[in-house]
Design goal:
The chain is 23% helix and 19% strand. With 133 residues, it is α/β, with parallel strands linked by helices. The chain has one domain: NAD(P)-binding Rossmann-like Domain (Rossmann fold), CATH 3.40.50.720. A five-stranded parallel sheet has the order 3-2-1-4-5, covered by helices on one side.
Length: 133
């Protein structure tokens, strides 16, 4: 079984999980999805998170998403600590990670994780206000 990491489970990470649920895996039980996030849901997540249930504030985002994927047959692994300078892709990792990150320091750390491909769909602070030459 190969691990497929989903890092950051806010509204973009939940959208990634939702899309994965529609992919035509012949045997979803052969897929292990690693869910990594250290945040709890807040009330605002209920209007933006595809998989956030009403009245689920203060539930860890990983524990909110895991049952949905497991009902579809996927195995899940939960990591409830932040990505840091010690985070590395393991030997079972598919080395393709879908990231939904909302801060620059964490994005910088992902360059050293050793994924062959990391797709970050996270939001930034917006485009630069001026272009320097």
């Amino acid at each position: 079984m190969r691990d497929k990491p989903l890092v950051g489970l806010g509204h973009l990470g939940q959208a990634n999980a939702w899309v994965i649920s529609f992919l035509g895996y012949t045997d979803p039980t052969s897929i292990s999805i690693v869910l990594q996030d250290d945040d709890f849901t807040i009330e605002a997540n209920q209007s933006t998170g595809l998989l956030t249930r009403p009245r689920s504030a203060e539930v860890r985002k990983t524990r909110l998403i895991a049952p949905t994927l497991e009902r579809l047959g996927f195995a899940t692994t939960i990591i409830e600590f932040p990505t840091d300078d010690g985070t590395r892709a393991g030997p079972r990792s598919e080395h393709v990670a879908l990231l939904g990150l909302d801060n620059v320091p964490t994005r910088r750390l992902t360059s050293d994780v050793s994924w062959k491909l990391a797709i970050d769909t996270g939001l930034g602070a917006g485009p630069p206000t001026s272009i320097r030459s």
